[in-house]
Amino acid sequence: MKRIFLLITTNLAVMLVLTVAAQLLGLDRYLYQHGESLGGLLTVAAFFGFGGAFISLALSKWMAKRAMGVRVITQPANPTEQWLLNTVRAQAQQVGIAMPEVGIFDSPQPNAFATGARRNAALVAVSSGLLASMRQNEVEAVLGHELTHVANGDMVTLTLIQGVVNTFVFFLSRVIGDLVDKAVLRNERGRGIAYFVTVMVAQLVLGILANMIVMWFSRRREFRADRGGAHTAGTGNMIAALQRLKSATNEPLPAQMAAFGIKGGGAAGIARLFMSHPPLDERIAALQKSG
Fold first, then answer.
1. Tens digits of per-residue pLDDT, 262-285?
2. If you average pLDDT over every residue of the chain, what do you get?
3. By the 8 A CB rule, do 139 and 91 touch?
4. Active-site annotation holds for 36
């Protein structure tokens, strides 16, 4: 549950910061004093909702490099790094994107991720454990999976979905705050402390619920990326790579990067709603069925 809590907290962090900033700057008070309408509130909510999502996207590569300690390969230091660059370059041409930055991060667990604000300015990184534990054809399948994410524009699409849910969380939390302030507490003299407390609590609760939508999309895109990896490197190699991940000790990426990796942790019950990745068994079965 700690990993799920951290993932949700990360997704909400930018929005909560923007909400506090809006309150400190007196935005809510200004809207109230100037005859706030639902249409006007929705416009402001969209500005903050999409603004928060795109700020996160713009920082994604920087955050990934810092959080994971990614070393970007500029000059290959050994034959493995040269092979990695050559493979990514060939696959990038195959899927029709510009050559992304390629990096390695130190972790004994096999994992990889792709991120970036634009499909032609992406970052693809693999763990040292992945390079050490997988055969080259399996690594090729993993890279094909990640480059399919980039080619499909999954990072931008995920950001747009996050922006939509952020907008409605921002909007509905203020509607609920007004209802509590006026209908429940009978406060007609302007928005008091109850309004602001209610907005923060409602935004937190609604944000957790909205996160289920984002995670549902994230799980769907993993199946598409698996098919892309199978197309690039062969279905058998993609299945073998996923089976290799399944046999490894379960140590998912940090919460900030969980939705961008190839391997996610397992979960059951209600926790499944917050999974960024489907269980590996389901992904393997989907490839076997399509293959």
1. 655 555 567 777 788 889 999 999
2. 81
3. no
4. no
